[in-house]
Amino acid sequence: MKKKVLIVEDEQDIREAMADYLRNVGYHVIEAEDGQQGLQFSLSEHPDVILLDLMMPIMDGHEMLKKLREDRWGMNAKVVIMSAMDDVKNIGGAYESGITEYIIKGESSLEELAKKVREIIFATA
After folding, report:
1. What is the pTM of this model?
2. How many CA atoms within 13 Å lie on the side-chain side of 1?
């Protein structure tokens, strides 16, 4: 069975590029365009990894992560934050929320992202 990856990203071109790449390397990919939709898909689909943007409309990544951690399944979900924000406050706050990894957008290729997803999935398998 294919491992599930949920991408929560409001920028359609970025989301689609990541989704296409991850599908091509063998993952089942679910896409959400905001935190509210991402939370719904997280709780219903139980993905193996959640790739979560921070700055989004309707519900931002911080709020989605907070609500996710309130759920029995969600408290242990593997979450990778993807953000252009590289300041210590955002990164530190994300790690305090129990994220698995923090990736700064623009500093990682799609290949590196797929490698990180694979590492996270097989570290917990």
Report:
1. 0.91
2. 5
